[in-house]
Design brief:
The chain is of the alpha+beta class and 227 residues long. It has 2 domains: 73 residues, Glutaredoxin (3-Layer(aba) Sandwich); 131 residues, Glutathione S-transferase Yfyf (Class Pi), Chain A, domain 2, CATH 1.20.1050. It contains 9 helices and 4 strands; from the N terminus they run E-H-E-H-E-E-H-H-H-H-H-H-H. A hairpin with a 2-residue loop joins strand 3 and strand 4. Helix 1 packs parallel to helix 3, helix 4 packs parallel to helix 6 and helix 7 crosses helix 9. It starts with 5 loop residues before the first strand and ends in a 6-residue tail after the last helix. Its main location: cytoplasm. This is glutathione transferase. It catalyses: RX + glutathione = an S-substituted glutathione + a halide anion + H(+).
Length: 227
């Protein structure tokens, strides 16, 4: 679907950029993807997001919208009559989805990233234990939110699915780095099955980066300290 002037500033490797891209795909919105170069910030990015100077930035009719979760909500509202609704229809369900999305960013993601930045095996073990504890919380959240359906949002991908699912590529990279399975079929069976469904969804599959390519990028982003 051609919608006019829609652009997205971002990088293929960014979890937060992927959120916006998945939302655009769900709504079948055609857009121009403006790829940022690692280690630099384009003039357009700085002009479009002068406060945080970060991607992603959605530009719709020459108006910039910043911050990944805000962009996802904007896409859902701006193109409400196209594709499935991304946010739940009921106010309480929307509040719960926003609560857990904030938990993913503020708690779970911080723990996941600390595995890559850990100095020494003890610090890494502590980080792994923290991720597993917080993943258990998300397993319970999935059971409560999904009501036995395939996604957090029910029958199709929604706001919380996007918030967590965008991390799945990096989740695999961290597992490789830690030599430890973090998304365990036995410990978190509901999330394990959900992850497979999410990655194979037509709105997601073309965007999910190859693990080897992403692992190479991670080595640049999180270089190991020299002995």
């Amino acid at each position: 679907m051609v919608t006019g002037d829609v652009k997205l500033i971002g990088s293929w490797a960014s979890v937060f950029v992927m959120r916006a891209r998945i939302a655009l795909n769900l709504k079948s919105i055609s857009y121009e993807f403006l790829q940022e170069t690692y280690g630099t910030k384009s003039e357009l990015l700085l002009k479009s997001n002068p406060v945080h100077k970060k991607m992603p930035v959605l530009i719709h009719a020459d108006k910039p919208v910043c911050e990944s979760n805000i962009i996802v909500q904007y896409i859902d509202e701006a193109w409400s009559s196209y594709g499935p609704s991304i946010l739940p229809s009921q106010p309480y369900d929307r509040a719960i989805a926003r609560f857990w999305a904030a938990y993913v960013d503020d708690k779970w993601f911080i723990a996941l990233r600390s595995i890559l930045t850990a100095r020494g095996e003890e610090e890494k073990k502590a980080a792994i234990a923290e991720v597993e504890e917080r993943t258990d919380h998300l397993e319970k959240a999935f059971i409560d939110c999904s009501n036995g359906k395939p996604f957090f949002n029910g029958d199709h991908i929604g706001y919380l699915d996007i918030a967590l699912g965008s991390f799945l590529g990096w989740w695999r990279v961290v597992e490789l780095d830690a030599n430890h399975i973090l998304l365990d079929e036995t410990k978190t069976p509901s999330l394990f099955k959900w992850a497979e469904r999410f990655c194979n969804d037509p709105a997601v599959k073309p965007l999910m980066p190859e693990t080897t390519k992403l692992a190479e990028f991670a080595r640049k982003l999180f270089p190991k300290p020299q002995a």
